[in-house]
Each structure stands twice: as structure tokens, then as C-alpha cells.
Specification:
With 675 residues, the protein is an alpha+beta fold. It is built from 24 helices and 20 strands. Among the domains are: 151 residues; 50 residues, no CATH class; 121 residues, no CATH class; 120 residues, Isoleucyl-tRNA Synthetase, Domain 1 (Orthogonal Bundle). A 5-stranded antiparallel β-sheet has the order 2-3-1-9-10, with helices on one face. It has a 4-stranded antiparallel β-sheet with strand order 15-17-18-16, sandwiched between helices. The protein has a 3-stranded antiparallel β-sheet with strand order 4-6-5, with helices on one face. Helix 10 packs antiparallel against helix 11, helix 11 packs across helix 14 and helix 21 runs parallel beside helix 24.
Length: 675
């Protein structure tokens, strides 16, 4: 079957857009093919700095003929409705429609619409320019005279279609004065000449010969392997950075890895600064020596084959890195001359948020909040207050001004340099953590106190001014802050009830549900243990774990079945009787069977035990007590008819089931559990 080859050859596409662009191109074209009735066998998208490419295999030569029925108005409907139906169905008169009969709705008109299939090449000539015109670039520019907006100017378009052994045809269309053809170009410097291509196989091979590695992931693999090999040969190891690797692979079409060096004296600067400088300014990888220390070497990835073994390229990168490291060293040494407190007055000039005051005002709130939290997490109050006061001070330093991503990190270095205790210095560095799902949480008490204070102040502040996340919009990263609180509390096993307003507590509940579901917990179990005023995150988590453990056993499964049976009977009878059964008036004098007495005895025993264990936050013990109800519940439903003819006996047995329901609800709302 025929295959499509599409290439959009352009000026350099920003690396951060490339992978998404390849996915968007694939989706846009394949969705349009399916909508046109062209079901394909497979599709692959590729991207390099100068091209977006797509191959779609197994496209039929024609779309199939289609026949569909369009339902119209009833017979005798107003003329306006009939006219609208004729127009939408493409009929000249109502006589062209069929009449169908429905016993309930009567006779109505139906149009049989036949749509002839079309040649795939013709359909593609319509699809491809629409895809280009409507491509969802995050940022685009207008260029040329055709009005097309694209991320960068398009220079050529390849669009061929044909079977494996046939000469493909060019899909004819124009985008911004660029007419489609079957000509592409190789590497900008190494093989800039025009290349005529027929279909994907020879296209990929021709580009390889022209020093273009088409596949982004293959370029990444090449860079990673060459970097590791080059480092190993020097007794070093690479500081792998997946984000940087993705970016670098998007900057080159023919990756060539080389090693450079910088002066040993720069290693006096904190390694985070060196790494940030080399990464940000030159997109290079740093290295460690055999002892794990940062080495005065780096790896660069060139987009060219050097005629001088890379001497000129390496020297150019070394020159830039030397200048940037000199700047960093200057900032670092200058910052060290002044204590962190020196920067606090400057925070009064920095607005945190128009409605929430300055950074200094925020620091004052953090100091107060950290002092309140410290005793609850086992931290020294004085150290927590000191760490909170200095937590934002490094925002005014020259180093953080140059590299904002180093806030906190530099604060720790400066705090240690001025003689602050390690607990305070570490809290300054860690109070932003965790920054994401893979980032570690603080574990030291002072760090925990300040980190919780930072996140809770953020959340309560923005809730107070009604700046809450909406949909996918969360400009102040409040969801991340809430998840950070949850992770800090759960991973450190802290009993830390949240003293926040109900709406913010509900937000925490939503984030906790997400967190627990990501950890493998069933959503219905989370709902079962949550109440509107549940504010102890650790307790909620433990309840979900204990409930999950119970329901994984046969006793748990059977008990849930018994509960649901009891709940269903109660719901039906309460509806029929027009009243609720509380369970409090179940009378032993009315019981006639041992199974009834056994169940009430078990309920009373378990009720007292479960209530005590729940009060003591021993949820596993409460669950264990609940599990003992399985046998008497099974026995009851096996031997007892609830809806006895005697009204008093029936009422008493319904109250008994209500008592069972009430006792189980001490532990969780089992009505919310599926299964």
C-alpha cells in the first residue's frame, strides 16, 4: 500500500519545541486521514533542528464509498424545518427522502446520503496545507508575503505519495509561496546540497549520507554513548542531565562530542555554580573524577566535523566558559563579604505579590509560622526562627540574581561561611523542597519546619486573596506546594493536623487523592476514609493503607459483601417505611434466634473496641476489630429472614442491621467502596 512522506524544511527550530512538534504533526495528519476515511497502518514522526518529517505507511489509494442516513423532521412538520433538512442533506426536494415509521414517534423523513470515495492523493492535497496553516506552535512568527505564521521560515516542502515499487507522486500544494516537491537538503555545513527523495527509506538513507541523523532519540543515544566513552578514557564520569541532553540533541543534526577544560582555581567556587554556569551558557556537560569531586573538564557537543581535531571549537568554548566562570567567581567572592542579614532590608523593596506585600513581610510571616510549627515537628524554635529569617536573604545576592535556580543553595553556602549552625544552613537550602515528584523531601526537623511554613504561607496567602488554581492554570504553583506539604508529612511520618480553612482543606484532600492514586491506592478507598474535616494527612494515608489491607483478605471481601447486603436492605425498607432505622433501639428481648444474639454481641464488642482504637489513631487495630464481624454477619444472613411477618421482629432486625452499619462507619464509609 502507498506511503506518505512529508518534510517541512525550515530554519532552526528551537530545541524546546521539537519533540512536541513531531508529536503534533503526527497527530494532526493521522487524525485528518482517519476523518477522511483513510485508515493507515502506521506513522512515525521525526525532527531535527531544521526539519519536521513524517512518514505514514499503509494508506489506501482511495477513500471508501460511504452511505449514511440522516434523520429529518416528522411528516407534516412546518415547512421551515423541512427546508432546513433539505439544505443540510443536500436534497433538491422532499421527494428524494425516505419515510420511516416509528410506533411511538410516528412517520418521519430520512435522507440517504451517498458519498463517493476520493483519491488519497487528492485528499492529502487538501489535508496537508490545512495542517501547516493550523499548526499549534507555542510561539510563531510571520514571514514572507503569504501570511503564514510558523516557528521559523519554511524553506522547502517535500510531500510524496506512492507504493513501494512505483514512482511516487508529489502531493501538490503551496504554503506561503513554498510549493511542495521532493527536494530536501542535508547538513547546513557538511552537505548543504539539494537531495532528491522518493519515499522514506531513501530519504532517511540520503540524509544519513548527508550528515543528518533524523531520529532525535538516536542523536541522544549517540551523544550519551560518546560522552561516556570520552569521559571513561580520562578516568572521569559524566554528570548526566536528561533535560540538557534533550536540548543539546535538538541543537545538532550530526553530533560530535569533544572535551574541554577550565582553570583548576575555579573549583573553589561551589560546584552548583560551576554546573549552572556551564549548563546555562554553553549547554555543556560537567564531569566528576574518580573520587566523586567535580573535575575541571567539560563535554561539548558540536554540529560539525572539525578539520583540526576540534582544537578551534574547544578553544572557543573554553574562552566563553572561562569568562562566565570568572563572573561567577566574582559574584561569589563579593557575596561572601557581607552577611546574609545585609540583604534583608533589600527584601522590603521586592514585592512578593501586590496583595500579599513585600518579600520582607513574607519573611516576617515565615518566622512566626516556623516558630509555631517547630514544636510539632521536633525542631528547635530558635533555630527555626533564625532559618526562616534568613531563608530568602540570598535572593538579594549577586549570584542568585545571575542564576535564580540557585536560590537556597547559595544561601546555605553563605550561611555556613558566616558560621551559622548546619541545621540552619541546611534549612535555608531545603525549604523550597520538594520541587517536584522526584525531588527528595527535607528530613531534618528545622528544615521540615521552615519548608512547611513556606508552603503553608503560600497557600493560605493566596487563598486569602482568592487566587486559587483553576483548571490547568496554576501560575503560583499552589498544587505543587500542597503536594509538597503532603509528601513532607507522610514521608517523615508526622502527625501534623492542618489548621486551615475548609476550602483550602478540601484542596488538600484533592491533592492527597492524586498523591494516593499515584501511589496505587484505590480512589474509592480514599473517598471512604475522608470526611470534610479530615485534617491529619498521615492518619488519612494510614487509614487507606489499613482499609486496603483488609479488603485484600477473604474476611474483608466477605464483610464488605455483608455490609452492602445490609445497606441495600435498609435502603429499600427505609424508603418503603418512610423512616430511618438508627440501630439504637435493637432489643435483645425481641430476638428469637442465636444468630441475632451473636451478631448484636459482636457489634457491641467491636463498636467499643473500634471507637477506642480510632480515637487513639490506631487505625490498623480498628480495622482488625472490624474484621471479626465477618463470621457473625455471614451466619446472620444465612439463618435469619429480616423481613419477618411479625412487625416487631422485622423492625428489630432492621435496627440490628443499622447498628452494624453504624459500627462499620466508625472506621470508614463503606457505602463509597465498590466491589
Amino acid at each position: 500500500m502507498p506511503e506518505l512522506l512529508l518534510e517541512l524544511f525550515s530554519e532552526e527550530i528551537p530545541a524546546r519545541f521539537q519533540r512536541r512538534a513531531a508529536e503534533d504533526l503526527k497527530k494532526a495528519v493521522t487524525d485528518a486521514l482517519v476523518d477522511a476515511g483513510l485508515l493507515y497502518e502506521g506513522a512515525r514522526a521525526f525532527v531535527t533542528p531544521r526539519r519536521l518529517a513524517l512518514t505514514v505507511a499503509g494508506i489506501p489509494a482511495r477513500s471508501p464509498d460511504l452511505k449514511e442516513e440522516k434523520k429529518g423532521p416528522r411528516v407534516g412538520a412546518p415547512q421551515a424545518a423541512i427546508d432546513g433538512f433539505l439544505k443540510s442533506a443536500g436534497l433538491a426536494s422532499i421527494d428524494q427522502a425516505k419515510i420511516t415509521s416509528d410506533p411511538k414517534k410516528g412517520d418521519s423523513y430520512v435522507a440517504v446520503i451517498e458519498k463517493k470515495g476520493a483519491a488519497a492523493a487528492k485528499l492529502l492535497a487538501d489535508i496537508l496545507p490545512r495542517v501547516i496553516d493550523n499548526f499549534p506552535w507555542a510561539k510563531s512568527m510571520q514571514w514572507g508575503h503569504g501570511g503564514l505564521t510558523w516557528v521559523r521560515p519554511i524553506r522547502a516542502i517535500t510531500a510524496t505519495f506512492g507504493a513501494e515499487h512505483d514512482e511516487p507522486v508529489v502531493i501538490p500544494f503551496t504554503a506561503n509561496t513554498i510549493t511542495s516537491g521532493q527536494t530536501t537538503y542535508g547538513h547546513r555545513f557538511l552537505a548543504p546540497g539539494a537531495i532528491r527523495v522518493r519515499r522514506f527509506d531513501d530519504y532517511a538513507q540520503s540524509l544519513e549520507r548527508a550528515k543528518v541523523v533524523l531520529d532525535l532519540d538516536r542523536r541522544k543515544d549517540i551523544i550519551r554513548a560518546d560522552a561516556d566513552n570520552l569521559a571513561f578514557a580520562q578516568g572521569l564520569s559524566v554528570l548526566h542531565d536528561e533535560g540538557l541532553l534533550e536540548e543539546v540533541a535538538g541543537l545538532v543534526e550530526w553530533p560530535v562530542v569533544m572535551m574541554g577544560s577550565f582553570d583548576q582555581s575555579f573549583l573553589e567556587v561551589p560546584e552548583e555554580v560551576i554546573i549552572a554556569t556551564i549548563r546555562a551558557n554553553q549547554k555543556c556537560f560537567c564531569l566528576r573524577d574518580s573520587k566523586g569531586s567535580l573535575a575541571n573538564r567539560f563535554l561539548l557537543t558540536a554540529n560539525n566535523l572539525a578539520t583540526d581535531n576540534g582544537v578551534t571549537i574547544v578553544a572557543g568554548n573554553e574562552r566563553v566558559i572561562r569568562a562566565r566562570l570568572s563572573d561567577a567567581k566574582f559574584f561569589y567572592e563579593t557575596d561572601l563579604k557581607l552577611p546574609l542579614e545585609h540583604g534583608l532590608p533589600k527584601l522590603e523593596e521586592s514585592v512578593f505579590h501586590a496583595k500579599l506585600g513585600t518579600q520582607f513581610q513574607r519573611v516576617e510571616r515565615l518566622v512566626k509560622l516556623a516558630a509555631e510549627i517547630a514544636p510539632k515537628v521536633g525542631a528547635d524554635v530558635a533555630e527555626a526562627k533564625r532559618a526562616a529569617m534568613l531563608a530568602k536573604a540570598d535572593l538579594t545576592t549577586g549570584m542568585v540574581g545571575e542564576f535564580p535556580e540557585l536560590q537556597g543553595v547559595m544561601g546555605r553556602y553563605y550561611a555556613l561561611a558566616q558560621g551559622e549552625p548546619a541545621a540552619i544552613a541546611n534549612a535555608i537550602a531545603e525549604h523550597y523542597k520538594p520541587l517536584g515528584p522526584t525531588d527528595r523531601v527535607p528530613t531534618e526537623p528545622v528544615s521540615i519546619a521552615v519548608a512547611l511554613a513556606d508552603k503553608l504561607d503560600l497557600l493560605t496567602g493566596f487563598w486569602a486573596i482568592d487566587e486559587k488554581p483553576t483548571g490547568s492554570r496554576d501560575p503560583f504553583a499552589l498544587r505543587r506546594a500542597a503536594l509538597g506539604v503532603i509528601r513532607i508529612v507522610t514521608e517523615n511520618k508526622l502527625t501534623f493536623p492542618l489548621a486551615v480553612e475548609p476550602d483550602l482543606l478540601a484542596f488538600f484532600h484533592d491533592r492527597l487523592k492524586v498523591s494516593l492514586r499515584d501511589a496505587g491506592a484505590r480512589h474509592d478507598l480514599v473517598d471512604a476514609v475522608l470526611t470534610n474535616d479530615s485534617n491529619d494527612i498521615l492518619e488519612i494515608t494510614r487509614r487507606v493503607e489499613a482499609l486496603s489491607a483488609l479488603l485484600s483478605t477473604e474476611d474483608g471481601k466477605n464483610l464488605l459483601t455483608g455490609y452492602k447486603r445490609a445497606a441495600n436492605i435498609l435502603a429499600a425498607e427505609e424508603k418503603k417505611d418512610g423512616k430511618s432505622y438508627s440501630g439504637a433501639t435493637a432489643s435483645r428481648e425481641v430476638f428469637t434466634l442465636d444468630a441475632e444474639n451473636n451478631l448484636i454481641n459482636a457489634i457491641e464488642s467491636v463498636d467499643a473496641a473500634a471507637a477506642a482504637k480510632v480515637k487513639a489513631n490506631d487505625y490498623r487495630a480498628a480495622i482488625a476489630a472490624l474484621a471479626t464481624l465477618r463470621a457473625p454477619v455471614d451466619d446472620f444472613f444465612e439463618k435469619v429472614l429480616v423481613n419477618d411477618k411479625d412487625a416487631a421482629i422485622r423492625s428489630n432486625r432492621l435496627h440490628l442491621l443499622a447498628a452494624l452499619r453504624n459500627t462499620m462507619h466508625l472506621v470508614a464509609d463503606f457505602s463509597k467502596i465498590g466491589g
